[in-house]
Structure formats: structure tokens, C-alpha cells
Amino acid sequence: MRRPDRKPLAALAAAALLAVLGVASCAQSDALVARDTPPPPSFTPDPDGGGTDGGGLPGAPLMCIGTECPDGFGTCLSGPVGSAPHKCGTDLMRDADNCGGCGNKCGDFEPLHMASRCVDGACVAQCSSASGGLGFDVADWRNCNGKIADGCEVDVLTDENNCGGCGNACAKGVSCIGGKCGCPTGETECDGYCVNTMFDEVHCGKCGNSCWMFPSPDQCESPPPNTVYRCDEGECGQLRCAEGWIDCNNDLLTLGCDSDGCEAPAGVENCGECGKRCKEHESCLVDNGNAECGIPCAKDKKVLCGDKCVDLLNDANACGACGIACPSTGPNGKRTCTNGVCGSECAEGWADCNGDPADGCEVDLQANPDHCGACGKQCDVAAGQPCIEGKCLMVDCDYPGAK
Amino acid sequence: MTRTRFLLGLSAGALATLLVPLAVTSCADTGGGDGVTPPPTPMPDAQADTSPLDGGCDAADPTCVDEIIPCSAVEWCPVETGVDNLYALTKVWGASKNDVWAVGAGATVIHWDGAKWTRTPVPPALPNPLEIRNTFLSIWGSGPNDVWIASTSSTIYRNTGSGWVHQRPPLDEYQERPVQAIWGDGPNRVRIGVRAFSFDRIIDDQHWILNGNQLTTSTNGELEWQPEEGTAWIFGYYGTPDNLWLTADNRYNNDWQRAYVQNGRRLGDGGMEWTESEVYALVNLHAIWGSSADDIWAVGDQGAMRRLRAGQKEWEVIPPVTNESLHAIWGTSATNIWVAGENGTILHYDGNTWTPQRAAFPPGKKRPNLTGIWGSGPDDVWIVGGHVALHSGELPGGVK
To answer: Which of A149, A239, A289, B360 sits most deeply, having the most CB atoms within 10 A of its CB?
Structure first.
């Protein structure tokens, strides 16, 4: 099957963006364009020689070598790092730096909350989302009004008229918080956040009632050992055990300032309750507020490295031991950790054909005509035969450039 | 063709330490001598008449074993170890024919008593009270009651006959380093080779921060580790305490220096003087071994082999007989040497020619990456790596 006709090579990314925006649908969740994306077509014949890319009959072998780039491929000097300028080595259908033609770069349009990628040789715009992180709020931008000019104008995580999706309006006076109208049962909205006012130090009992600003007047002059005042049951200034300590003789609530406080350390000696002692080599693990004895990370068959559970058998950053990272590889290589032992291999589609570790996996097997699909598998370079998707190009003998 | 390379390296085979001449001591106790022992258990799927291919790996994968190979038809036969296939074995060393140790991932330490492999427990590496799950990368012993294993600088263990005991770490917790090489440093002394670390030293009343890559200690009483200067990541040792060779990767100091071999000579004051020996290789040389001080071999990635003989000023470049990476070398004489490496590679040298040897690898699984060799003599040799322990020579009960 032939690849669909391309857009004109001179199509600019912005033009493509506007064109696709024009048919955007409000119903789209994360893309402005409903566009079928067929599986990447191939321009090389089947291994059995029965391909028809060269225009022959189905099942007929392709008898001549091709010398011109097949539709969808070009020879662009610019491209992603590592892409050597092999003849026909640029996939114009998918290369975001050469989308539809050399130099056509699919851009991002941050002010309109949009990004674009190369699909079938055209830059296709889609709404971008901020994933959070330092200095960024989480956002999920959508084009709810279908207009081109304002791009993806709605954050469905916070918009009361489009909460969680375009058109989902919250009831009057109810905020949209994290893509949901209002707060979960048991929580109250305070300053745009859902809090549990029963235990929140800043919103204790009601929004804005900060325990720090309004301490209880009858607090102990010197609190009992290992105790703190905090918000409990919606009231500030409640004398309670500090984190990591337990009141095993239950005198804190009855004797208050005169009690011996929280005298027992939580942990392996008193795991979850007084006197519950963990076995040797066990730790007191706290999960969702429940404390239980166990081996950290053991249920996932992992090991505790610092404060993380790590798989020493498969993690290249901790292979066989916490903190022992596998050695770096050369270009286009990747580190591996298999059965607890470090290794390295070439990234998919790349190979180390010269045996020099300094340049790593230096050959692009998909496009290099000297190593097409495998090291040493050479195309007819003198005749101009390119390597397309790991195979030396063969075509029908009446195809342009056929030799 | 894609490249796969495992990065173990290390003390080839490891003869008993203080060997003078080097090849003799390791064969000293080969008699077995413990009377009648039950026959060992070969791996079930290594038998010619048993299970069909279990389809454990992709048949199109050229590294997959797609045939049932009878042990009787090949030089090497897998022996059941009881180790879960999840855990790779890495190294093997023994004090005698019936006293062999193999180590690997998941804190695996197994012992061969002449009849079977048995897993031995390894206690936590205190102060961390949790069960140790590390991959042990190195093993060496001076004798049956002085065996050392290590994963990292904080997980070094010694067995003096009554189980594995955690040893005082030579580096602080902020400088955790993999330990791939252990060797003797003289009577009651041990040496470890690691990835480079830094240490403080006062020289002429001036405070210096230096790079180190080796540590030595007396083994009597509490260990007092002494650092030695160096920058390369050490993979393996071979030699005597007074004339020692090491192979290493120095690319972290010079990015082109992946093959780095040094010779250490004992000085009058007890210290070692290390001299770089140019081996003319661009790839890692993972293992080093010699039939004597006058005949040293080093092997590594892409089938690289180098040899240095007495009277030669430069290492001889041996034409590669395989493109696979080679990780272990051991032999009994200058005319009887084995090399093991990735993808089940086993080579034997008869003094003139390197010849590939075959093993009855379990069908339906990938050929393992072989990383350790040791033997008590020419008719009792072990190779370990991946999920297998291979043996060459007769075992009790007529099993190879």
C-alpha cells in the first residue's frame, strides 16, 4: 500500500496547527483534532520480497534497486542528535524537526497551552498539560470553546464551568478542585483546598481557625514529656502524643499536665500498640496510618535503599547493591541490570559495528547503507541505493530511479 | 547486530594465595578423600532424555538454546545448585575439590561439598539490621578456613570455618563502592580492589585529599584498612603478594583508558610500587591470570586477549577467536587454560590453539553470561555465570 499523499512540503508548523485547530471538538479530552493515525506505513518490501511499495503486483518480487527516496523520506542535514545525514535517512512523516519537509519544525505554543507533534508529515497540535513540579501548578488545559484564537483556554482541574471535562459545570457556589466539584466527604473547602477541619492546624473546626494564632489559654506551663498541643476533633490546644511516642499507661487524658506524658517510643518495641514487639530484623512499618511489623519493601520483593524500595535485580541505578549504579555507556547505548548483574546494550535500532566503545553504538541500522539492518550488511552505495527502515531499498523496475 | 556486554570482571579463578610457584598450591588438595559420596544432581533439563524445550525464551533469539544437549556429548555439564533463576551466579573459588564456594545475586553464597551445592546464610551487614540481598561480586581465600566474599565496601564477609561474619567496612557509608577484586597481601593480610574513592592524608604537614582504589589490612584482630592511591576501577588480581598484577578500567581518569593493567612490586618498606603496563586495548579487560609469573594472560570485551611472557617487553595481542566479551580466565598450566564469557562462551587453550568448548546448557533458556572459573585441577573445573554452575570432569556417581 502506498503511503497517503503528503501535505505540501512547504507547509509550516503554525499553519498546520491553525488548520487542525479549526476542526477541534469540545468533546476531545486531550487533543484538539480527531484524526485517524494509521500505523506507520513501510516502504520496504516484505522479507519474502512480496512487497508492493515499488508499485508492482501483490506478491511480485521487487527486482531493481531503488535510488530515489521513497515517498515520506528525505535527506535532511538537520535532525535529532545522533541522526546521521544518510541518504533518505529522514522520516518526514514522523520527524518533528523535519515534518513533511526538511526544516519544518513542529513548535510549541506555550501562551496558548498548546504543543505539536509530527503525524503523517503534518504538525498536529494538541493541548499541553502542566504536570506539576517545582514552580509549576498542575493543570489540564482543554479547548472547550472550539475557537482557534484562544487555543486551549480552560484548565479543567479548576474551572467551575468545565470541571474535569468540557461542559461539566459545578453547582452554584461549589468550587472545582482537582477536576472534581467540591470536596470529598469529611473534608471542607478552605481557600481553594480541601482540608479535614477535625485535625488541620490552620483550619481547626472551621476555615481560618489557626491554632498557631489562637493558642488555648489553659495550656500546661511545661507540657509532659513527648507531648504536643494540636488540633484534634476540631478543637485547638488538645494535648496529644508527639509523633513517634505512645501513652501506654493512658494517663495523658486523665491527668493532663500532671501525667508522665507519652512515655513509650513507638516503633519496634511498641508497633501500633503498647507492648507489641516486632521480631528480630523486622521494622515497624506505617502504611496509611496503620503500623505493622514487617521487613521494609519485602512485600514487593525489593530492598530499602535510603527511603526508597529498590529492585536490586533489575535497577541499573542500584544493581546488586544500594547506590551502586551500573557504569555509563557510550552514545546510543543503555545500561542494563539483569538478575542483579550490570550490563549494557545498544538502544533499539543502533549497533556497535566498529567495536570501539568510545563511540558507543555508532551505527543507525535503520538508515546507514553500509550497515543496513545489521553490521556489515551493505547496500549498493555506488549505485545510490539507500537503506530504508533497516532494508536496502528495492523497487519495481519501472519505478523512478530504479536500476 | 546489537551489542550486549556484562560488566563483571574480576579475579580470575583465584588460586590459593601465596602460591610459589603460582600454579601448584591450588591443586594440592584434590583427593576428595571423604569416602563414598552420593552422586551429585545434574540439572534436570540437562539430561538427554528428559523435558522438551520449555519455551522460556524467544526461539528466534540467537542466544536462546534451542536443542537438548546431552552432557555426554560436550565438555561441560550444568550441576543443580538450588539457586533461583532470578539470581545470577558471578564467581567461584575453592580450597579443594570438595570445598568450593560460588557467589552471586540475592546474597547467594553456595558451597560444594563434593556431592551437592548447599546455600549458606549470610547475616545482615550491621548496622543495617535488614536481610542482605546484595550481589556478591568477588571471592578469594587463603585456605579452607579463611574465605572472603564482597559485594560492596560495606558488605565484606569472612568465613573462618564457622559461618560468614560481616567485616568492618574500609570506607564510610558515603563512599559505598563495588568490590570486584580480593586477593592476598601477604601472610594474614588481605587486599581489595574497588572503584575509586577519596581519602585524606597528611603529607609534610599539609592536608591532601587523594584518590584511592585499593585497601589492605592485616586479618588478625580488628581490621585496619589502609588505602593505596589509584584512580582506576579494579576488576581483578593475579600474582603473589610481592609481584601482583591487576586489571582495571581507568576511563574515569582518562576517558580512552578502558584497558588498564598495572604490576605491583613489593618495596623494602613493605609498601607496593605500581607500574602501568601498556596492553594495547581499547576495551575493558575483565580478568587476569597467569600460569606463572612469567606467563600472564588478560581477557576482556569483544574477545580481547593479551599475553605477556618472560622476556617480552610488550604485551602480545592474541588474534580474537570470538567477538563475545570474556570475563574469566583460569588454568592449571601454560598449556591448559580456560576462558569464559558472554553468551555461554567457553574457550580452551592447549598451548597452541584456543578452541571453543560446548556445554549442555538447559534448553529453552538464554545462554548464560559466564563470569567465574576455578578448579582444583585439570579434571575438576567449575564455571559459573547467569543461572548455571558448569562442571568439567568426573563427579562422584559418574556424573560429569
So the answer is: B360
Q: Which of A23-37, A365-379, B93-107, B114-128 has the lowest mean pLDDT?
A: A23-37
Q: Which three cell numbers mark B182?
A: 580480593
Q: Is residue B50 part of a domain?
A: no
A358 and B249 within 8 Å at the Cβ level: the answer is: no
DSSP string covering B145-212: TEEEEESBTT-EEEESSS-EEE---SS-GGG--BEEEEEE-STTEEEEEEEEEEEEEEETTEEEEEEE
Let me know: does A227 contact A209? Beta carbons within 8 Å: no
Per-residue confidence (pLDDT) for residue A43, from 0 to 100: 40
Contacting residues of B for A320, CB less than 8 Å apart:
105, 134-135, 137, 151, 178
> What CATH number is associated with residue B318?
2.120.10.30
Q: Which amino acid is at A272?
A: G
Residues of chain A contacting B371 with CB distance shorter than 8 Å: 341
The yes-or-no verdict on residue A101 having pLDDT over 60 is yes
- Say which residue, B309 or A243, is predicted with more confidence: B309
Interatomic CA distance for residues A345 and A332, integer angstroms: 9
Q: What's the mean pLDDT in A217-244?
A: 88
pLDDT bin (cut points 50, 70, 90) of residue A133 is low
Cα of B131 vs its chain's centroid, Å: 24
B326 domain residue, yes or no = yes
Q: How far is B205 from chain A (nearest CA, A)?
A: 35
Span B332-376, pLDDT tens digits:
999 999 999 999 999 999 999 999 999 999 998 999 999 999 999
Query: In the predicted model, is pLDDT for residue B36 greater than 70?
Result: no
Which of A295, A339, A353 is facing B105, going by the closest CB pair?
A339
Residues of B with CB under 8 A from a CB of A: 1-8, 85-88, 90, 104-106, 124, 129-131, 133-135, 137, 151-152, 155, 176-178, 233, 249, 255-256, 258, 282-284, 301-302, 323, 369, 371, 386-387
Q: Which helix (H) or strand (E) holds B228?
A: strand B226-229
Among A residues 242-281, those touching chain B with beta carbons less than 8 Å apart: 280-281
pLDDT computed for residue A79 by the predictor: 54
d(CA B141, CA B15): 8
Q: Which positions in chain A touch B284 (Cβ < 8 Å)?
A: 357
Nearest to A312 among B5, B8, B133 (CB): B133
Q: Please give the residue range of the domain that contains residue B320.
A: 57-86+278-400
Task: Decide if B98 is inside a domain.
Answer: no
Residues facing residue A99 across a β-bridge: none
| Residue B215, in any domain of the structure | no
Say yes or no to pLDDT of B264 above 80. yes
